Structures are given as structure tokens and as C-alpha cells.
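User: For a reading group we're discussing how well predicted structures match intuition. Take DUF87 domain-containing protein. Before you show the prediction, I'll give you the sequence so everyone sees exactly what went in.
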Amino acid sequence: MGTSIELGSDNTGGPVNLDVEELLATRLLVQGNSGSGKSHLLRRVLEKSAGVVQQIVIDPEGDFVSLAEAFGHVVIDGAAYSDAEITRLAARIREHRASVVLALDELEIENQMRCAALFLASLFEAPANQWYPALVIVDEAQLFAPAAAGEVSDEARRGSLAAMTNLMCRGRKRGLAGVIATQRLAKLAKNVAAEASNFLMGRTFLDIDMVRAADLLGMERRQAEQIRDLERGEFLGLGPAISRRPVAVRIGSVETRAKSAVAGLTPLPLSTGEEMAALLHAEPQSPPIQPDLWSAAAEPPPRATESKLQEHIAAQSQPSKEDCGSSMSREDVSQVVRTVLHEMSQEEGCTFHQSAALFQDFSVRCRMQGVKTHGLDAAEFRKEFAIAVAGLDLDADDGQVERLLELADTVPEELLTPFLAIGKAAIAGEACPDDEVLAILYGTRSVGRARRMLDYLERCNVVVVRTDFSGRRSVAIPQLSLATTVA
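Assistant: Thanks. Here is the predicted 3D structure of DUF87 domain-containing protein, as C-alpha cells, for the group to look at:
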């Protein structure tokens, strides 16, 4: 199989080729204003070299995911993975020589930079026996290697810039050939741009970019004007992998399309002005009400099972008829206890009261129901109250609730309610409560304290918290092999 692919045709209609093997050693820089055809050019290179070399695409707009269906690329949604998972995926990509598209379109720019930096760094740090040749295509490279500080944090900018510099400066020995595309050379860090030996310059209008492009192509300043006259899909190429002299290239056709591609004008709606005004000023449709798993009114609150409460009651002295009333049985006592716990757990702000005050209130309410000896001491009450507040379903017969309660015995009492709420969500396969809900269950208004509470549980090896690049969190309980869904 040859190593050259056809980019397109020159002014005479003859083919212009790109030597992939030479490209691996010399790298490529593509420049052109928005609409000049940069993404089309990259797509042509990817499609024609798909069967020749491994391809790794950093795609900030999600435009290259269509390669998966046609050419078998694996699409990795950067927003769905944590830092450690992105690093591990990149290592496996080098090991197994998979062609992938890292789609970052669901992330904000700062998280795009962080994700790309971790991904590229892991590719770069692969062991020597995995230094297989691969094209690393980075679209909109000025986002990941900015020439000046922007609105992102210095940490994100430095990490991304360092990863891009390593790719272009030191990637060749590790088999990584950078192919970077940018709208403006002036916005791209010079250390990154300077390492490319092959250039494809498309249409641009700003004088500073035209002059810089002309310098890279070895053209005189007065010849830079022709860069402004290039049509969409036309590029001036130069480099050992393309041509030893500047050559005009009209990029050939492609098989796949970007998701944002627009074929032409779309007919306008036929609505009259009055109809359109009515649509614009219509009342917004209310979304369907989602059940609130953590509020009191979401559903009939689960009650403690008979067996659990009877265990506590049996451990104490059995209430006499004189204490409880002539007709009250142990089952009646259990029912009263369950009812009182349920009522207290549904009261707004109940988690903000001191446990001693709650226990006293519980005892008073039981006596008002005719139960003078409820059978729970202060410690047992705190656990039963936490179960009621968390909404844990003790009637489940699959053993998971019982194992959760056994593990809860190792958790400090003040953390018991939020831990059981997390456990309930994990058992049900639901999302973890957010920071505000956890804070209320913890008995505070501070979401920072709720986060520190989760950190403490993780340091105690009770839970494992996973947060992806979109900020979505899931919490696992490894000892129970359970995890909440991502939210």
C-alpha cells in the first residue's frame, strides 16, 4: 500500500498528493478564516488516510463524529468521563492502535482545554514499545494553544499549551504527528506553529495573518494579496510532504459530512406576522413535573418494617399493660413508633434540630399516642430517625437494604442521614442527591460542608465519588457493589 494520498488538484487539473510517511516526520499546519474549508480539508486527509495510519482527532465542535459510521472510528464523549478515565482511555488507544475521535462539544472551553491536555499527555507518556505512528489532528488549535491569556484560568491554559507544545516539538520520536488547524495564525502560540514543516494556507483577510502566512510559504510580502483571493476549498500548499514549491490545491470531495453542514438556504416558514407574533408570545409549556425523591410530598413515605422495630423493642423490657394501656399490644406500639417517626421526618427543617431535642419530642409524641415506653434508646432513635428522613425502604427483600444498614454502623452518626440517602439512590439506580439536598440532610445550609462531608466519606473508603468533565457526579459504594447514576 502506498503512503501518498490525493489531496485534490492543482490549477492544471493535475493531482496534488500528500505523503503520509513524510507527514509523520514533519507535521502539518492548516490556516484559514471561518468558511475557508479547513474542516473539509482535514476530513479529506482523514478519509483518504484512514486505511494507512492510526488517527486520533481532537474535535472541539463534534464535527468529525460521522467518521465512526463510515470508517470505524471510536467516538469518545469527553464530557462523560473523569480525569482518570480519560487518561486510561488514551493509554489504551496507544496500546491497541485505535482510531478515535475525542468529541469535546459538550464541554465549556476551559474543560475542553483540561480534557485535551490530559488526553494528549497520556498519549505522549505511552511506553516506548507502544510508539506506533499516529496522526493527531487538532481542529481549532488556537483554543488549545492560545498565543495570549484569555478568560480561562492560567492552570488550564498552561496545561493545554504544554500538551500541544509537547505534541508538536517532541511527538515525532514517539510516533505522534501533529496536524493542527487554526482560523488565525496570530492567535496560535508561535512555539506550536513553528514546529510544522508543511503548510496549507486558505483564505484570510487580516493583513497580519496574510503576511505571516506568506512568510511561512516563502512568498514575498507583495504576493500575500493572493491569499485573500482564494476561494472556499482552495489552499496554498508547501512542505516536504506536499511540494518543494508553493502549489495551489483545490481540495477534493469527501464522503462524510459535519453535523453543522448547511447545504443551502432553507425556506422560511409560511406563517403570517400575526401567527408568528402569537407563537412568540405564547405562554411557555410547563415541563412535566418530575418526582422529587428527596422531598416529603414526593410519594407516600416508606415506613420501617415490623421486624426492625420489633428487634429494638424486644431488646428493651416489654411494656406492661399498665404502662401502655390495657388493650395495646407490641404490634400497636410498633405502629405508633412508625407513625411518629414518619411525622417527624416530614417536618421542614427537622434535620437542623439537635438530636437530644428530637428524642425528647419523639418520646412526648409517643406518650400522647398512649405509649409510655417506646423501647428505643437515644442511639437507636437517631438511626431510626435517619432511616426515616433518608426515605429508605426497609420493606425491600433483596438484602441490599440490610447490607446498607450494616455498613451504616461504621459511619459517624452525624453523617448517617446523607449516607443513607446516597445508599437509597444507589439501590434504586437513581441520581445522587445534589449538594443542596445533601447539605439539608446533613443539617446545614452550606454546600461546602456537604462537599467536605463527601470527601470525608471517601477518605474513609466508604464511598467513591466520580465527577466527569461536565461536572456531573455519581457516587459508588464499593462494599455493596452499588452506584448512583450520573447527574
